[in-house]
Amino acid sequence: MSSSPALARRLGLADAAFIGLGSMIGAGVFSVWAPAAQAAGAGLLIGLAIAAVIAFCNATASAQLAAAHPTSGGTYAYGRAELGPWWGFIAGWCFVIGKLASCAAMALVFAAYAAPPGWERPVAVAAVVALATVNLLGVTRTAQLIRVIVVTVLLGLAVVVAAGVAAPPHPIAASTLLDGGIPGILQAAGLLFFAFAGYARIATMGEEVRDPARTIPRAIVIALGAAVAVYAVIAVVALAALGPALAHSSAPLADVATAAGWGWAQPVIRVAAAAASLGALLALIAGIGRTSLAMAREGDLPRVFAAVHPRWRVPHRAEIAIAIVVIAAVLLVDLRGAIGFSSFGVLLYYLIANLSALRQRGAARRYPRALQLVGVVGCAALALSLPWQAVAAGVAVVVFGVAGRAIRLRAQR
To answer: What is the pTM of this model?
Structure first.
């Protein structure tokens, strides 16, 4: 174990809930509706319900585990405690690689809204550097900035809802909900799950939350409930305002304002989209840093990353390394590839979270085992619904990580 200072418990319920909400109300809510509509048409509403159910199962598993294991690392720590070191390692590895890809995706989405043509990648790199610096200055500053970002995004979404109400309606017929078929609906659910996958960011910060056994479960449920409500309203508004054109829109929420004749709202929505991307990126960097810290403490990542800054009380070496990797990804990968790869890693991470929660007994149990069984099956089904390229790349990287750990353990013996 590292002899460096421990992380400080500075976050209350509101801070933790805002971090979770800021992780979910991100770039996905501004970009995911068109591909989901391409896959399922109006059936994206069913896909949204499926994604929300699986997200709820995963969130309750994470909340139950966090109450019993109030430490940094999320499912990496839970998997080690409940299933064994190998399961914990796979969860932590999937989280780190998946969320590094998510960081690159969020930075690229921010640049798509905020940068002039041709400057997208330099602006994305600048965003990563700026937000990594904020995280290095301490977790309370992270929480304060996320509050501002979440409020900005919600105000922008309120403008979208008002524009949708004012736009000429395209009625949603119940008979069209199944037009995409079961495969299309599952694909839409997988795409929409990417927009949800931020609620357990709170659990990765368990060492910095006051009264974690009580605060973390409540914050996760509050954040997820708020995000589901926001997504449901936006989905109905976008479908009603744009109809079939939603599937072909590159900026669906901006097009809602156009459909209402509200040209003045376009800059407002663009600012909100940029802020949402920044909020998700900020919380992602913080979450990966804490999981990397936990893995380094156990030797599953180089122990040099187990250091905590004596003044700012953050895992500064891990967060600097994260920023460097994300910058490289921003310069090399495209948005679609980053999202698919990220989704695969995150779904495996939550699958292990549900398996870990299934093992808990007695006073540690807070939710029925049936929820965790649904979570296991749901995560597997959505992972298999992803494009084969994403699945193949994800399997290859997981195998690489497992092989690396096996070689290290063999060398130690």
So the answer is: 0.79
